[in-house]
């Protein structure tokens, strides 16, 4: 079966998936001008390491699935890290971009806004069951849009079920607006092994630990320790997916012991790193 893909300089339909590094907003706009008015269109494309999709917005709802790799989806509300065998729902007219560290095969469903009115208006994680995975792969591996209403109805029934029963995977990382908190978060994101206390961070950014604690709760609905653990978990997913040893990742992210890191991972995701990436 044929696949729709984004080429390096433009958008085409061909019988094979080819690699592209960066998809621009202009590429997306050009492609959308060529989409038939079907309720659902599948896409598949591959990226080398460092590839991605520039910030863009479109009228379609989108199911973004990566299979074995990990991707970052940036939105105005924050960043969504999508682990292996997970997907993310992106509502129509949501500004978003995609960043990738490693080579990556991406599968998408673009869904007409006319048939997604009752789906969430914010980005939401999807736990991809075996059935849903096969439906996504099938839709993204054919150049025939899903025109038949019965196909669309069945697929949406599965999407609704998955959204309703999605487990609480900590995928999103919101971006703070307050200047001092934003500085703290930005610098920690650059160096997630930093073990400075909240008081030490306060001395660095010009705020008391009490003020920073209040800002974390108000803007991010988390304590500093919870936010820091969340950031490290997201970074750990990236590094483990690249094949790094658990002990090395634990050390790189500032954990005093591998056991402590494994316990944090298990409490957050319900499985140890070895089980998660098995």
Automatic annotation (TrEMBL):
Q: Which Pfam families match?
A: HTH_18 (PF12833)
For the keyword DNA-binding, the answer is yes
Q: Which PROSITE patterns match?
A: HTH_ARAC_FAMILY_1 (PS00041), HTH_ARAC_FAMILY_2 (PS01124)
Note the InterPro entries from the entry: Homeodomain-like_sf, HTH_AraC, HTH_AraC-typ_CS, RmlC-like_jellyroll, RmlC_Cupin_sf
User: Where would I find the HTH araC/xylS-type domain in this sequence?
Assistant: 179-278
Source domain of life? Bacteria
Alphabetical UniProt keywords: DNA-binding, Repressor, Transcription, Transcription regulation
One example of the protein's molecular function in GO is:
DNA-binding transcription factor activity
Q: What is this protein called?
A: Helix-turn-helix domain-containing protein
